[in-house]
Design brief:
The complex is a heterodimer of chains A (about 270) and B (about 290). Chain A has about 270 residues and is mostly helical. Helices cover about 80% and strands about 0% of the residues of chain A. The chains are: A mainly alpha (about 270), B mainly alpha (about 290).
Chain lengths: ~270, ~290
């Protein structure tokens, strides 16, 4: 049995190396000059040179793009969590036809591919002044996110016993009081799931910003990168330095939140 | 009367709670879907303020549109191959990284890592590796290689590899979660009864993993059918339309060729195709899970 195990270990290790390889090349490129790259492609950089990064920082609007991504992600995720927690609670606690119909509408909305709504969404956004605005794009992400969010929250609330809520009601607590003082603190695990899934999606999304945030000062990281790569396609080392800079925040988020993320995905799958 | 008013007041809080989500959903999904349906019966160019409706003409045209059939074919080719590869690889990794191998947490992190990177980035990094990195690497072993993305015969496969690299993370986690729900004694007792590793997997583990398989097939397939970013940032549907999928075809028609009305018709057709695929899939899985009782 042991040799088999070692063989499998070697195979998986090789696969892991293959998985990291493209990223390794990106980092390698980011630290080398054009001349060094030309001389020897896979050689290590002769010294740890941050010139590309400094240059990329100066020519791009990296801090602005990070800020835009942060604002858009935080606004959108806040909207999604608040709106879906409220609606999910409502749907779970009122087992009436009307609420079930609303729930089904949210579910079927998940089947609509973005391409179908893309153009009308753009037109609607233009006429409502949602284009080139952080709030505007956050409202749209909110509308996308509540569909799955309501599914998660209502499923979770159904699993919570009603007894405490009923006791509170007898003591004269109002519905909002019950929700904010009793239910909301219990929703932490499902909130983490919804949060993580949406942060990953919104931070990396390309298509909606491509439609909604074309104005330079509103571009998020993926969009900014797309234009940067187009502009500096001849200076690859610079482009790669920028690529690495774009990777750092989300990879750091992943490494710190890994346990949450993995739990979130697993929980989401079991509920779905 | 009084009690009705009181129950309404009781109800009104719940209705109010529902309101933000419903409004967001109306804004982002329902209204655009409804207007999109309307535009699909027009020859609107996407910019002019006047919209002229032409009945079913667009739909008639679509059925004779060979570009549409090519895009559909490419989309399904991409989605089916990718779904199969992602599920085979992520299940294999899950089986090995559930508790079989050492350093499994490091491996899990590595295989998940590409999924957190934006597609714009991975498209760029891979485009470069395909055109310069790999050829330089392979030339050391005397193998000539050109970028698959530049060759109509291999471009699709080149994209699928990138998508596979980015796509195994979440399914792997879902399979691991599924495996951890299977009691270890079941597999052990089967082995004591003389079942080999393969037989134990085939008759015990795999059937019990069915819910995870269902979810992963569904998630990966629907995601893959809707692919846009990866194609748009790498090949833009080329070379020679070899990677032109539905979403890039729709985007090109609506935005680059200013045929918004027709683009909407294509979108609606695509939506109907997706609905059929989802319904069929859910139907198959439901029957299969019932079969296994």
């Amino acid at each position: 049995m042991r040799p088999v195990r070692i063989l499998i270990f070697v195979i998986v290790s090789l696969l892991a190396i293959a998985f990291v390889f493209p990223l390794y090349v990106a980092v390698l490129m980011a630290f080398k000059s054009a001349k060094q790259t030309f001389d020897s492609f896979y050689a290590w950089p002769s010294s740890l040179d941050f010139a590309n990064f400094v240059h990329a920082w100066e020519t791009s609007e990296y801090p602005k793009a990070i800020m835009n991504s942060l604002i858009v992600t935080v606004l959108s995720v806040a909207l999604i969590v608040i709106a879906s927690a409220l609606a999910g609670y409502s749907i779970a606690r009122r087992n009436k036809p009307f609420y079930n119909v609303v729930f089904l509408l949210f579910l079927s909305g998940m089947m609509v591919p973005f391409q179908v709504t893309m153009l009308p969404l753009y037109k609607l956004g233009k006429s409502l002044h949602l284009v080139n605005s952080h709030w505007g794009i956050a409202l749209i992400y909110g509308g996308f996110g509540v569909q799955m969010g309501v599914l998660f929250f209502s499923g979770f609330v159904r699993g919570i016993s009603r007894e405490i809520e009923e006791a509170a009601r007898i003591d004269g607590c109002s519905t909002p009081g019950i929700f904010f003082r009793i239910v909301l603190p219990l929703l932490k695990p499902v909130t983490a799931t919804v949060l993580v899934l949406n942060v990953l999606y919104i931070w990396n999304d390309f298509l909606l910003p491509l439609l909604y945030l074309q104005d330079k000062q509103f571009r998020t990281i993926p969009l900014q990168q797309y234009f940067f790569f187009g502009q500096y396609s001849s200076d690859l080392n610079l482009a790669f330095a920028y690529a690495v800079m774009g990777m750092v925040p989300i990879v750091a988020f992943f490494l710190f939140m890994q346990r949450f993320i993995i739990k979130g995905i697993a929980a989401g799958a079991i509920k779905g | 009367m009084n009690s009705l008013r009181r129950s309404l007041r009781g109800e009104s809080w719940y209705l109010l709670f529902l309101l933000p989500a419903v409004l967001l959903f109306l804004l982002a999904v329902v209204i655009p879907l409804a207007t999109g349906l309307r535009y699909s019966f027009s020859n609107w160019d996407g910019v002019s303020p006047k919209i002229h409706y032409i009945g079913w003409d667009n739909y008639v045209k679509a059925f004779r549109d060979s570009d549409l059939w090519r895009a559909l074919w490419n989309t399904f080719k991409y989605a089916l191959i990718l779904t199969l590869l992602v599920n085979v690889l992520s299940m294999a990794l899950a089986l090995l990284l559930d508790n079989y191998l050492k350093f499994r947490n490091v491996f899990r992190t590595i295989f998940f890592l590409p999924s957190v990177i934006s597609i714009v980035l991975s498209g760029f990094v891979w485009g470069y590796n395909y055109s310069q990195g790999f050829p330089q690497l392979f030339s050391r072993f005397g193998i000539d290689m050109t970028s698959p993305l530049g060759n109509p015969d291999y471009a699709m496969m080149g994209l699928i590899i990138v998508a596979l690299w980015q796509g195994v993370g979440s399914p792997m986690i879902i399979y691991i979660a599924g495996l951890q729900g299977i009691p270890g004694e079941l597999v052990e007792s089967a082995k004591i009864d003389g079942a080999g590793t393969w037989k134990a997997f085939r008759h015990i583990t795999f059937p019990l993993l069915a819910p995870a398989v269902t979810i992963n097939l569904l998630l990966v397939l629907t995601g893959a059918l809707k692919v846009f970013d990866l194609v748009y940032v790498t090949t833009k549907g080329g070379p020679a339309f070899a990677t032109d999928v539905m979403s890039t075809y729709i985007y090109r028609t609506s935005f680059d060729n200013f045929k918004a009305g027709y683009g909407m018709t294509l979108s609606v057709i695509f939506f109907l195709v997706l609905v059929v695929v989802t319904v069929v899939q859910v139907g198959i899985f439901r029957r299969r899970e019932v079969d296994m009782g």
